[in-house]
């Protein structure tokens, strides 16, 4: 390495040069971080400590550098190397001193010879020449002597700089335990001067003096000691934790003459270690606290969930218990009102009906509020005609508005898309509450309902609904209060106008849970405007018929209804209503009796109460669907309209539900709606040879739905039938080809395109399910057993449907 560039051994040569220059500028440099690289590529992170050493005239001659290995921190080994180097330099010095003695002796001899030869100068010129040569030799020896002296001084300065460059306390101790030499770091850590430290007892500067002596003795016994923990005390009382590293040093004869000690300051490391231990303890404590908190939270959650369940169960029971008698009260009141009555009787019965309706409104408000609070309120997204839906609902208020001599003004923005996706039922509920309030608090003037398009893009339409009245108004400081549960603007309002104070609270919740906002502008004795905005998705689908009232169809005869109801009053009411419809009925007291009757007879539809003794409506429906494999339509008669029961109704296989007290128009609409849906009677199990013959006798299509949708418009019907005939055969071909080629993506897409056409052409839902199964198989891409059979069966059905539709198309053409 001698003669090479020192900076080439660093990964950052320029940084090393800068630090080296800093040492010359400042006289020293402390703890600069650098990285040395081994010739084989290994990297070592070091702390660079350097001190300038000077010649006799005080001029800088070079820099002594100590590079501490930060990773390993083997200071004892470094010290041994330094000692060896120092011993080596001493040996060199001693050798050169011995040579100097010899040279001096030679010089004395030469002087004597010179004197002799000077006397004999005249006699021997050759001797003079010899003496001149000897003089030159002496000059060389003198020069070498000067270099030896300089070398000795340099060695001394080198050793001193090496010691002073260390930032750790470094001290030499003789065999008696007395300090013989030290560096500046020991002065700083003890607060003593060099003079005070020299020849003092080394062990006096430790808090554990006996332990320090034992470590000192161990160095003599073993030759070295490493990383023994001790604590040095400063004269001001400050304590410094150190790691004690020591090694013996010897004279040139190999005799141990003392110990060299390096004390590494580990106060900061010890503090960090202590903090880590404390942090670990605190973390463990925090974890325990968190676990306890989690258990408490889980316990509280269970308690809260149980409380919600108990509340839900209470509301369910309350709803059932109140609705069941109310069903009979309101139902029979309606029946009696249809008979011949005196004016007084009619007046009394109207009062009974009005009170019953008010009680049902109260129950509905409480149950709606409970559903909103518990997060059970759900919102449908089905196609509906906005204008028809809103205006039909407003018809309900015409009688009340006329009674109060008010005027209903309807304003509708015709730019609103005809059909939108949303929850029309909840929209009705919101508008119904707001219009009811407007009528309630208005004695003269107008009620204005306006519907305007605020924003429209490709996906959605944002619509603003506003209900304005000329009523009593709301004070500005009361506006926030009217949206709270069981609150009205004042106690006087409640006393004069009645009501639960729940309507606006429910309205606010229904609007906000659909992402909308409600606003109020009001002036006392002038009137109020309640407005809200809702976003609806746009759709290309037609709006479903929904639950629109169906006029009494006297052509529908011989409809046989099984009423499953345990309460005699409700049984009598259902008999009366079904007699008015002209239907045939049968009564079963519970689910068990209903199953026996179904085994013995055939019914077109079942009206199923939910809560009955022996076997309730859920258990009976599950048995009918799963054990009897019957698809007879089932309508639930429920006094509990919470979402819990409605979800159960769907799960067990019920087709629809009606809330008690039963509205005869809704009941009739739902029965007719279910029975008018196209059905295909199941083929009886016969011999294989007879299947084709039977299938030919069965008509696959039923154009009732198509007639309804097109309003019997022959041109539109022909267009839709032609479209089916045009697209179906190619789709069948694509399905067969993609199955053969295992092109699952194309198979699924083709099956998906066919699915809507079955309902449009009045084909059985069983055929639609076949296409859905093929689509599902294609998505899975694995389960292929049976798919080939399904495809062949679907092909046969669709081709037969095409034949039947072609015949229908020809008939329609001939009638034009």
What do you see in this structure?
The protein has 816 residues and is α+β, with helices and mostly antiparallel strands. It has five domains: 6-157, Beta-Lactamase, CATH 3.30.450; 166-265, Beta-Lactamase, CATH 3.30.450; 378-538, 2-Layer Sandwich (Heat Shock Protein 90); 560-675, Response regulator (Rossmann fold), CATH 3.40.50.2300; 688-815, HPT domain (Four Helix Bundle (Hemerythrin (Met), subunit A)). 54% of the residues lie in helices and 19% in strands. The strands form four sheets. Strands 9, 10, 11, 12, 13, 14 and 15 form a seven-stranded mixed sheet that branches. A hairpin with a 5-residue loop joins strand 6 and strand 7. Helix 9 packs parallel to helix 11 (424-440) and helix 21 (714-740) packs antiparallel against helix 22. The longest helix has 71 residues, at 267-337. The chain is elongated and about 180 Å long.
Structural features:
elongated, 816 residues, alpha+beta, seven-stranded mixed sheet, five-stranded antiparallel sheet, 5 domains, Heat Shock Protein 90, 20 strands, Beta-Lactamase
What is the level-2 CATH architecture name of the largest domain?
2-Layer Sandwich
CATH class of the largest domain: Alpha Beta
Relevant CATH superfamily of the largest domain:
Histidine kinase-like ATPase, C-terminal domain
Unreliably modeled segments:
485-501, 544-552, 678-697
Q: How much of the polypeptide forms β-strand, as a percent range?
A: 15-25%
- Global outline: elongated
Counting copies of identical and different chains, the oligomeric state is single chain
CATH topology of the largest domain: Heat Shock Protein 90
Helix tally? 24
Structural class: alpha+beta
Largest sheet: 7 strands, mixed
End-to-end separation in angstroms reads: 113 Å
The overall number of domains is 5
Tell me, rounded to a whole number, the average pLDDT.
Answer: 78
Rg from alpha-carbon coordinates: 53 Å
Give the tally of β-strands. 20
Provide the helix percentage: 40-55%
């Amino acid at each position: 390495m001698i003669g090479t560039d020192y900076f080439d051994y660093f990964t950052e040569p320029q940084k090393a040069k800068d630090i080296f220059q800093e040492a010359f500028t400042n006289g020293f440099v402390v703890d600069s971080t650098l990285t040395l690289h081994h010739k084989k590529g290994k990297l070592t992170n070091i702390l660079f400590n350097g001190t300038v050493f000077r010649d006799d005239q005080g001029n800088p001659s070079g820099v002594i550098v100590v590079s501490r290995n930060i990773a390993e921190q083997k200071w004892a080994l470094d010290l041994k190397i330094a000692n060896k180097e120092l011993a080596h330099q001493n040996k060199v010095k001693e050798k050169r001193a011995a040579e100097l003695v010899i040279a001096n002796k030679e010089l004395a001899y030469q002087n004597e010879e010179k004197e002799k030869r000077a006397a004999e100068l005249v006699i021997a010129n050759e001797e003079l020449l010899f003496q001149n040569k000897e003089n030159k030799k002496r000059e060389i020896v003198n020069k070498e002597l000067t270099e030896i002296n300089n070398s000795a001084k340099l060695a001394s300065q080198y050793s001193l700089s090496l010691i002073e460059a260390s930032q750790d306390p470094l001290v030499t101790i003789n065999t008696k335990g007395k300090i013989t030499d030290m560096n500046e770091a020991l002065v700083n850590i003890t607060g003593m001067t060099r003079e005070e430290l020299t020849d003092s007892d080394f062990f006096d500067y430790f808090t554990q003096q006996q332990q320090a002596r034992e470590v000192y003795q161990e160095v003599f016994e073993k030759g070295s000691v490493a990383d023994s923990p001790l604590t040095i005390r400063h004269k001001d009382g400050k304590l410094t934790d150190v790691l004690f590293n020591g090694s013996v040093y010897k004279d040139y004869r190999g005799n141990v003459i003392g110990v060299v000690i390096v004390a590494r300051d580990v106060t900061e490391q010890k503090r960090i270690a202590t903090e880590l231990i404390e942090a670990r303890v605190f973390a463990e404590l925090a974890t325990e606290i968190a676990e306890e908190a989690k258990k408490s939270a889980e316990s509280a959650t269970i308690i809260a969930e149980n409380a919600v369940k108990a509340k839900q169960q209470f509301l369910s029971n309350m709803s059932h218990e109140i609705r069941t008698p109310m069903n009979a009260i309101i139902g029979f009141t309606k029946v009696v009102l249809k008979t011949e009555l005196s004016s007084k009787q009619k007046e009394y019965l109207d009062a009974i009906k009005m009170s019953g309706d008010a009680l049902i409104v109260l129950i509905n408000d409480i149950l709606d509020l409970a559903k909103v609070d518990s997060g059970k309120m759900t919102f449908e997204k089905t196609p509906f005609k906005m204008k028809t839906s809103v205006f039909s609902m407003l018809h309900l208020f015409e009688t009340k508005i006329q009674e109060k001599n008010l005027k209903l003004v309807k304003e509708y923005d015709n730019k609103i898309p005809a059909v939108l996706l949303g929850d029309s039922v909840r929209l009705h509920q919101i508008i119904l509450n707001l219009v009811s309030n407007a009528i309630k608090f208005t004695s003269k003037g107008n009620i204005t309902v306006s519907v305007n398009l605020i924003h429209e893009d490709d996906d959605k339409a944002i619509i603003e609904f506003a209900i304005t009245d000329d009523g009593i108004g709301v004070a500005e400081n009361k506006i926030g209060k009217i949206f709270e549960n069981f609150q009205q603007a004042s106690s006087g309002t409640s006393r004069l106008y009645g009501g639960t104070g729940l309507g606006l609270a429910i309205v606010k919740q229904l609007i906000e849970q659909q992402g909308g906002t409600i606003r109020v502008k009001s002036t006392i004795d002038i009137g109020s405007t309640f407005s809200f905005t809702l976003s609806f998705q746009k759709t290309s689908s037609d709006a479903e018929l929904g639950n629109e009232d169906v006029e009494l169809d006297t052509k529908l005869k011989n409809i046989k209804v099984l009423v499953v109801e345990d309460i005699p009053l409700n049984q009598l009411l259902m008999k009366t209503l079904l007699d008015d419809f002209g239907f045939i009925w049968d009564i079963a007291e519970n689910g068990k009796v209903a199953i026996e009757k179904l085994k013995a007879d055939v019914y077109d539809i079942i009206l199923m109460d939910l809560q009955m003794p022996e076997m309730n409506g859920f258990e009976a429906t599950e048995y009918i669907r799963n054990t009897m494999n019957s698809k007879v339509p089932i309508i639930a008669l429920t006094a509990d309209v919470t979402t819990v029961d409605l979800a159960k109704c769907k799960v067990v296989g019920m087709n629809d539900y009606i809330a008690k007290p039963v509205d005869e128009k809704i009941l009739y609409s739902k029965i007719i709606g279910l029975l008018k849906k196209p059905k295909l009677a199941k083929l009886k199990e016969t011999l294989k040879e007879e299947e084709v013959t039977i299938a030919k006798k069965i008509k696959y299509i039923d154009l009732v739905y198509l007639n309804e949708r097109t309003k019997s418009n022959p041109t539109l019907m022909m267009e839709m039938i032609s479209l089916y005939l045009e697209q179906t055969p190619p789709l069948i071909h694509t399905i067969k080809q993609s199955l053969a080629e295992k092109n699952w993506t194309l198979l699924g897409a083709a099956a998906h395109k066919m699915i809507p056409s079955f309902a449009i052409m009045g084909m059985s839902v069983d055929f639609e399910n076949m296409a859905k199964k093929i689509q599902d198989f294609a998505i899975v891409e694995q389960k292929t057993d049976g798919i080939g059979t399904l495809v062949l069966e679907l092909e046969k059905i669709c081709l037969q449907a095409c034949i039947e539709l072609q015949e229908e198309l020809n008939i329609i053409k001939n009638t034009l």
